[in-house]
Amino acid sequence: MFRCYWLLLVLLTGCAQTPDSSLTAKSPLTTQAPHKNEATVSQTLLSQHQQWQGVPHRWGGEDRRGLDCSALVQLTYAQHFALALPRTTAGQALVGQAIPRQQVQAGDLVFFKTGPSQRHVGMMVDQQRFLHVSSSKGVILSQLDNPYWRRHYWQMRRVL
Hints:
endopeptidase fold (from Nostoc punctiforme); two-stranded antiparallel sheet; thiol protease; Murein_DD/LD_carboxypeptidase; cysteine-type peptidase activity; signal
């Protein structure tokens, strides 16, 4: 029993340590993005769709072999908008500013409650379409007014 507590203490202490700055890569990413032109954001997201279209869904995946919804959001905002977002949908649902659905702009994050404890995230391309990773079709564009998505809609958040 003592070994378990000791091991837990060592692991937790290791996670809490600040990394040596000489070993940490310098990153141009920020958690605050400057305001972006909506048309430019839309074109960027459509280009991202073309580059990733059809890449399959893979829970926990983060590359072209497969990725999940929050990974696509995280890598898109890092690569194209120099914005560091959390890796998980739960974390992403806490960033930015909540906005009414009627005020949606390209680049806003859209969240859905797809099950009792399941969440899904996508990126609004325009007033009606969003880019996301479908569990059955991979990276796709979908319509926000689709009955399934309308039924499971949760919130919008502005991060750009």
